[in-house]
Each structure stands twice: as structure tokens, then as C-alpha cells.
């Protein structure tokens, strides 16, 4: 499913109207009906207050008001704005509502108290004040309305049309206030503002409804961002052949760990093992090997020269050995600590082949010289916002406010695959495309979950034989496993169990899709 900004949504609309010939009023009618259906299904017999602005978002709200009234709902509809400023389609939707003998009240200083009383008596409040057409911060009257809506949050369900009013659909920024919705019904495809914070935190449950714009329009318009979904991921999950052996599923090499971070290599190995890797070798500073062995008996151990509990400066020379097995994907970084230096990393990069994933402390080293991976492909970087901020010499806030642009620009410029981790992780490719995973949970907001993800990425790259597919599977399944795990009690080392459950759920989905 495509993920768009406000301009791209307008272009999709225009294409549907001008090139396909769907009249714009039909799109509005379909959009309004779609929200009406969602409300009818979820809140039967509710008393509704519908709030409409004079833009097309308000037009959608007028349409849904008419349909819900026709289905027997008690609806009070308010216009916040003026009839004169309505768009052509909104004016049509408004007239149809009025001519259906529905009284639309106008919000004025005089009617304000009545408006507040009606809000207090509502079971469901529909927010059609402003959608993707918002400019800057909400003006005073709209902001007051939003605050009144939010005051009823405990007593009424709040449903936003397209996007909660006050959120910038391009970047999720809230300049002043925004509606805090329980349910948001959007059309055709989601907008970035639904997945970028703080806006994303105001959407409640997000429903995407088809309004008749064919999916290929996104491709036609060159839209490069997509939201990952179960149906797509279930087709990527590699099948296990009955007639297979450990060599069939790839060999992962993890170069990680130090005295202070004994668990990190173990968690990375666990991520790889629990998601189907055939073989995992752990290269560790010699002195910590005995501690890690007890944590992951499935791994093969490769002790490297040690200096005070970290990799010694020349420990990379282990890679010179001529009798090494073939490693299909290499992970460097989890728990390295601060003792290794950039020359050590350079040697490791130069002396390994195949897909290379740099995580954690390896990313901090890479920040000292971004040319290190220039001649090495493919390279995968998995920073959290703090790590990319350090690499790019920005603040975490700057990163979080520009997640999409930073991920895409960095991946293109440095010709790497980048996973910008976070509540909705973004995968960006060297070609400039990007993918957002809607999956995840606060159960993952704990030390070590990123280490597990790195192992999963390597494992899925090997099993799918494709870097992008491996990244998509790993990030998505990691998020699903987090959703299945208890938010409080589940830790990174418990993820293994839930990875299995997530994979089974996806396999079932794939079977369902192929059953007539
Ligand atoms: N394919 C789809 O997805 C379809 C989408 N559709 C719908 O169209 C919507 C987009 O419609 P749109 O372009 O008319 O803009 P919209 O969101 O109503 O905002 C403009 C209005 O907001 C106002 N306003 C602006 N800034 C403001 C501020 N700071 N503070 C206060 N007010 C402010 C502005 O007022 P003005 O400045 O003009 O006085 C104007 O009235 C989209 O979200 C979806 O619901 C469907 O109808 C069809 C298919
Ligand atoms: N609230 C959340 N919702 C979804 N995913 C989350 C959340 N918090 C953390 N995660 C995920 O958990 C992982 C944490 O990685 P990271 O910060 O590198 O942890 P560590 O370095 O301790 O292993 C990332 O994949 C991130 O996307
Ligand atoms: K809205």
C-alpha cells in the first residue's frame, strides 16, 4: 500500500478525476459513505455530533451526516466556517444535506454554548474540521473547537475524517493543538502524518478505505513510499523445504561483544537462530566466550584476540585464516564497546564479503568516516534515532521531525540500506524507495531488542536471498513478535518464542490467500 504526503494525495485525486474520469463529487460521496459505514458498524444507536469545516474535509463530513441520518442516527451537524468559502464539492454536499431536511447549525459566538452542550451529550463526535489541506497552526476558532472536542475524550468516541484536525499530513507535526481521535478513517492510502509523531499518537485506530482510486495510480505517479502489510510480508517469508539441511538457510557471522556487553552477541545470535538461520558463528573477544556459550548453545564460537575484555586492535587478523567457512551475511557491532577503533572496523569491512550489517557501536565508528563502506556492497545500517543523529551531527529532535527525509536521503547518498528504527521503523534503499512497518509495541522499548533485530535481518537476508526482502521480513516480524509479547514482562531474550508465533500467523495468512 502506498504512503503519501498531501501533495501526492492531491495528485492521485487529480489523476482519478482527470485521467480516469471519476467525478470529484463521487470521490467525496464514497469517502463520506465509507466513514458512515465504519461509524454505523462500531457505534450503533450512538448520538452523534458532526463538525464540518468549509473545505473538502467538511464536505466528507456533510456526506456522512446525511447517510447516518438516513439510517436513523440522531445527528447534530455543525458548520465551523462559512458557506461562502465552501469548495464546490463541499457546497454540493452541504446543499444535499440541507435539502434532506437536516438542520445544519453554524458555530458563532452566540451558538457556542449550545455547541458545547451538544458536544457533552454526544456518544460519538465526528471531526471533519480540516484534513490534508491544513496550513500552519490551527486558527483561533478551530483550535478552540479542537480543545472542546478533546475535553470530551473520556465520555465520547472521537472519529476523525481522513486525519485528526491539526496534524500536518506530511510530517505529523502539530503546530498548536490537534484532535485526539479514537478512530481515523482515511481514504485510498495512508498519509505520512499517520505514521510520524506526534501526529501518529493522535490517530487512534487507523482504517484505510478504498474510494475507487486504482492502486496502480501510485506507481503511475512515481510514489516511492509504501506501508508494509501482512498480505505482502506473508508472500516473502521463505518456505522451509522438507528436503533441506543447515546449509540451505545460510551462515550468519556475528562479530560482537565485550566484557560490559556479554548479552548483546547472544541476543543477536538468538534473533538469527529463532528466525530460521542455518548456522550462526559468533566471533567474540576470547575472554567473554565462556559466558556467552551458556546463553546460545546453538552457535559456533570463534574466539578472537582480546585486550582487557574487548577485541584487541589486531584481532581482525583472524579473518586472514585460509580455512574459513563461507559466511553469507556478516553482522558487526552489537556490544563492541568503545575500545575498538576505526582501523579495526576498516579491516573487518575490507576482509569480509557478502551483505554487511553495521549496528550499534560499529555505527558510532562509521560516523567518524562515512567513506568506509564506499566500496563495499550491499551494506545495511540499523541506527536508532540517537545513532543517526550522532552520525549526521544533528539533534535527536531534528531526526525525529524529519525521519522520512533523513532516512531516504542518507540511504541514497551513501548507497546503503538504512533501517531507521523507532515506533514505526523506516527501511530506506539506495534507490530512494522506502517502506514503513506499522508493527511494533512498547514491549520492544527495552535494551537488547535492536540486537535481536540485527540477527533476524541477517537470517532473513540469507533465507530470502535478497537484501530488501530480508529487511522487510525481519523488521515486520520483529514488530509482530513485539505485539504478541507482554508489554511489561517480555524482554529481548523472550522475543524468540514470539517470533515463532508471528511467523505461524503469517504462514496461515499466506495459506488463506491461496485457498479457494
Ligand atoms: N482522495 C482523497 O483522499 C479524498 C479526500 N477528500 C477530502 O478532502 C480533504 C482535503 O480537502 P481540502 O484540500 O479542501 O482541504 P481541507 O483538509 O478541508 O482543509 C482546507 C480547509 O481547512 C481550512 N484551514 C486550513 N488551514 C487552517 C488552519 N490553520 N486553521 C483553520 N482552518 C484551516 C481552510 O480554511 P480557509 O483557510 O480556506 O478559510 C479550508 O477550509 C481530505 O482531507 C479529505 O477529507 C475527499 O473529499 C475526496 C477524496
Ligand atoms: N515503542 C515501540 N514501538 C515499536 N517498536 C519499538 C518501540 N520501541 C523500540 N522499538 C523497536 O525496538 C528496537 C530497539 O532497538 P535499539 O534501540 O537499537 O535497542 P538496543 O540497542 O537496546 O538493542 C528497534 O527495532 C525499534 O524499532
Ligand atoms: K479531520
TrEMBL record:
Binds 1 potassium ion per subunit. Residues 9-219 form the YjeF N-terminal domain. Keywords: ATP-binding, Isomerase, Lyase, Metal-binding, Multifunctional enzyme, NAD, NADP, Nucleotide-binding, Potassium. Its cofactor is K(+); Mg(2+). SUPFAM superfamilies: Ribokinase-like, YjeF N-terminal domain-like. AMP binds at residues 421-425, 450. One of its GO terms (biological process) is nicotinamide nucleotide metabolic process. K(+) binds at residues 57, 127, 165. GO terms for molecular function: ADP-dependent NAD(P)H-hydrate dehydratase activity; ATP binding; metal ion binding; NAD(P)HX epimerase activity. Pfam families: Carb_kinase, YjeF_N. CDD domains: YXKO-related. The keyword Phosphoprotein does not apply. It catalyses: (6R)-NADPHX = (6S)-NADPHX; (6S)-NADPHX + ADP = AMP + phosphate + NADPH + H(+); (6S)-NADHX + ADP = AMP + phosphate + NADH + H(+); (6R)-NADHX = (6S)-NADHX. Catalyzes the epimerization of the S- and R-forms of NAD(P)HX, a damaged form of NAD(P)H that is a result of enzymatic or heat-dependent hydration. This is a prerequisite for the S-specific NAD(P)H-hydrate dehydratase to allow the repair of both epimers of NAD(P)HX. Belongs to the NnrE/AIBP family. Belongs to the NnrD/CARKD family. This is Bifunctional NAD(P)H-hydrate repair enzyme. It comes from Ammoniphilus oxalaticus. The gene is nnrE.
